[in-house]
Amino acid sequence: MTALQPAASRTAVPGTSGLSRAFGRSMFAKTLFDNRRIFTVWALATGLLALMYAGFYPQITADATASVPEAMSGFGFDDLSSAAGYLQSAVFGLLVPLLATFYGAATGARMISADEESGYLDLLLAHPISRTRLLLHRFAALATGAVLIAAVVLGAMLAIRTGAELDTISVGGFTAQAVTLALLALVFGALATAIGAATGKSRAVVFGATAGIGVLSYALNGFASQIGADWLRRLTPFRYYIGGEPLKNGLPLADVCVLAAVTAVLLGVGAWRFAHRDLGR
């Protein structure tokens, strides 16, 4: 009788066929498998961008340093002459953290919102898995992607460290910066996951809200000193991501703890609300 069923009725449920079914016993592994291409693209794109901009360091001249507007000093563009100063501004202070922010926003929006929007969430929760466990497994996969991004960026920096005259920065300094980069992505990943889990809004709305908060906090961190309100920087995750200058000073443990704590709080609030929310609304 099964053989006589129309092809449409035998269509596999998304994410339950092929190798994906082999990972079905673990929601973490399944999410990791289903998003493997997305995580790989984000990691390679971020690593290549960091590699490209870091490679420009030997071409930086004193004239180029002097031509940087004073308004950009809040973004770290006040010391382009040293390798650490250049990377802290042009690489780890500009495009790379924004990519990490967008990764967190985009991937976090997929973790719960995309499934709820498509109706796939009901099918997932029909299995013996609690809402909290589902959210935590999904976020663990997001975290793995963030670590992959940081690892690829770290590998890119170490690969050109000597050739691009960046050897004044220690391996420990590069590693410390990679750790804070991963944590920055986790903060915004947790924010997007929490917003989606707590509100049930669409994936586009969750991404837009999270990315908007990220860009605004990035701008606030950069321009706060220009308006004489340095204390405002402490309200943004970017201050704890790069304010301790990991490339120069190594891993800032206090800043790492703040980023980790913010991630845990956001995730906890999102999980609590998700566990108590009526998914029909």
UniProtKB/TrEMBL annotation:
<protein>
    <recommendedName>
        <fullName>ABC-2 type transport system permease protein</fullName>
    </recommendedName>
</protein>
<keyword id="KW-0812">Transmembrane</keyword>
<feature type="transmembrane region" description="Helical">
    <location>
        <begin position="204"/>
        <end position="224"/>
    </location>
</feature>
<feature type="transmembrane region" description="Helical">
    <location>
        <begin position="253"/>
        <end position="275"/>
    </location>
</feature>
<feature type="transmembrane region" description="Helical">
    <location>
        <begin position="172"/>
        <end position="192"/>
    </location>
</feature>
<feature type="transmembrane region" description="Helical">
    <location>
        <begin position="80"/>
        <end position="103"/>
    </location>
</feature>
<feature type="transmembrane region" description="Helical">
    <location>
        <begin position="139"/>
        <end position="160"/>
    </location>
</feature>
<dbReference type="Pfam" id="PF12679">
    <property type="entry name" value="ABC2_membrane_2"/>
</dbReference>
<keyword id="KW-1133">Transmembrane helix</keyword>
<keyword id="KW-0472">Membrane</keyword>
<feature type="transmembrane region" description="Helical">
    <location>
        <begin position="38"/>
        <end position="60"/>
    </location>
</feature>
